[in-house]
Amino acid sequence: MTSRKWVRLFIRTLLLGAIATILTSFFVKTDSYSMFLDPLNIWEIFGALLWFMGIGFIFSIVSQTGFFAYLFINQFGLSIFRGYWGPVQFILIVFVLFDLVYFPYKNAPDGSSIIPYVVTALVILGFGLAVAYVKAKETKRTAFLPALFFMVVVTVIEWVPVLRTNDPDWMMLMIVPLLACNTYQLLLLHRINPSPDKQNTKDVKNNK
């Protein structure tokens, strides 16, 4: 990947994170805007938008850091585990999903239901499966498991700082831009950085 492509990817992902965070804030942080509606205070509303845009930039940078860490981890895993890297990724996915349910529920107040935690894990898994399916369809079938690993394991790891607060609003405010940015980067990677085989095929077609 050239530096020009990386800068373009960085800026677009940064803007996507900001937009996703602002849109999410309209639903989960309504009070941050409603308090300035009566009486109407445009400058305060604009300030709130800037605040959430800044937070979105931070979430986007977290996502991009996780994405490039994943690229390194995937290559490292292939070199260390070789043919066993696939099963290792599957085990890690199961382990992370279990932790996503078990530990928050364990630290929840007495009498809390486990259903919200199970639903959260299933939603992330379902979203990851959908993205991994698209990735595999656009590239190759072997890309399915690594894509699912990224969308589940890496996303949850990026989400940990907010998960520790156990604040539903902030959890939602962060997970939406994380999923949006991670999906965008994952599905764009093979378009801006095609595999050697595809690049050679493209060059052959251009030379004809």
TrEMBL record:
Sorted alphabetically, which InterPro entries does this protein's record hold? Answer: KinB-signalling_activ (IPR024164)
The keyword Membrane belongs to this UniProt entry's keyword annotation: yes
Which keywords accompany this UniProt record? Membrane, Transmembrane, Transmembrane helix
Give the highest taxon in the source lineage.
Bacteria
Q: Name one GO biological process term.
A: positive regulation of sporulation resulting in formation of a cellular spore
Tell me where the transmembrane regions lie. Answer: 9-28, 48-72, 84-102, 114-134, 143-164, 170-189
Q: Which Pfam family is one of this chain's hits?
A: KbaA
Record protein name field: KinB-signaling pathway activation protein
Per the UniProt record, the source organism is Salinibacillus xinjiangensis
Upper taxonomic classification of the species?
Bacteria, Bacillati, Bacillota, Bacilli, Bacillales
